[in-house]
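Appendix B, example 12.
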Amino acid sequence: MPKLAITNLSKTFGAGPRAVTALQGVDLAIGDNEFLSLVGTSGCGKSTLLSIVAGLESHDEGEVLVDGVPVDGPGLDRGVVFQSYTLFPWLTARQNVEFALKEAGMRGKEAVDAARDHLKLVGLDGFADSYPRELSGGMKQRVAIARALSYRPKMLLMDEPFGALDALTRHHMQELLTRIWEQHRLTVLFITHDVEEAVYMSDRVAVMSNRPGRIKEIIDIDLERPRHYDLVASPRFQQLHRAVLDSIRAESIEVAQLGSALA
């Protein structure tokens, strides 16, 4: 049984002539401890799909199962990290992580110790008592990742988590997340517009079609682990990068041709 099974999923926003079908007939299965990235043109429904898996958005048809159980709302079995840091500004880094642990039922010294352990995991053990305003963008996102991992979810859902970071910080965060995942293994659904990021981090990359979104193609990333950033210069990495990029580019060309035909 896959950790996540999405079958014939469809979602439409609005009704009548203004209705927009975001997703139609989406089928996707992600295995236990697998890292899968979802890529595609802007507006193809990637974030909508992740929100449905997170239980933050309803769907019209089909089903979403985690360990065979239907998703009918948010749950502690799924940790979510967005592009915005979503930290409470009046709480320290440690308190932000503790907040999630308390929601999961952990209290007292156990919660304090777990929060410190997870901040150490993301390299922030020296900043536990710092407030978000005192942290850089990359450090804030580390706190968000520590918080999402702290209550041991079955799955981590990440929507462009490094999209707002500068290039160097982004590379550092990619290496950090890859290292954490390789050491602690859990199922990850990762949305990104960065093809290099998707290939570097993933076991498989799923390419979505234009709206209404569906899974157009899944590309296996047969690169060795553990991974290091020198890998991006290898011929195999470049070959996989080109395959994913070509698949997305074909969708972009289709959109452009459709626009010309309607002009």
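The longest strand covers residues 20-30. The CA atoms of residues 48 and 57 lie 7 Å apart.
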